[in-house]
Amino acid sequence: MSKKIGLVAHDKKKQDLTVWCSQVKEKLAQYDLFATGTTGQAIIDATQLPITLLKSGPLGGDAQLGAMIVEGELDGLVFFIDPLTAMPHDVDVKALIRLATLYDVPFACNKATADAVLTLF
């Protein structure tokens, strides 16, 4: 049974996440990948990795990833966060981080932690 990894990034971090996914493409190809809509499409365009697209983050994609965590259907979360830009859906982002913490799901918020989380699998 393949591990499931969620991928999401704030707008100003989508390029960083796409570059990271390109760098670790061979490793990511071993997993079932889920991503919020806009982020996931950017990654697909850059890498051709098979990714299940959820809603865009502000439209509920963050909540969908959170529900997957609660149901035990997500083994890791990579969420490249932009710490310098206010987000209108910040409450959703905080809820997702809270759930990853509460359910002890490995959570990466930047390239360094994403590299570390990927070594766990």
UniProtKB/TrEMBL annotation:
Reaction catalyzed: dihydroxyacetone phosphate = methylglyoxal + phosphate
SUPFAM superfamilies, sorted: Methylglyoxal synthase-like
GO terms for cellular component: cytosol
GO biological process: one example: methylglyoxal biosynthetic process
Molecular function per GO: methylglyoxal synthase activity
Stored PANTHER family: METHYLGLYOXAL SYNTHASE
Enzyme class: lyase
Keyword Lyase: yes
HAMAP family membership: Methylglyoxal_synth
Residue positions binding substrate: 10, 14, 36-39, 56-57, 89
One Pfam family linked to the record: MGS
Protein name as it appears in the record: Methylglyoxal synthase
Function of the protein: Catalyzes the formation of methylglyoxal from dihydroxyacetone phosphate.
Keyword set, alphabetical order: Lyase
Gene3D superfamilies in the cross-refs: Methylglyoxal synthase-like domain
Residues the record marks as active site: 62 (proton donor/acceptor)
Domain MGS-like: 1-121
UniProt similarity note: Belongs to the methylglyoxal synthase family.
EC number per UniProt: 4.2.3.3
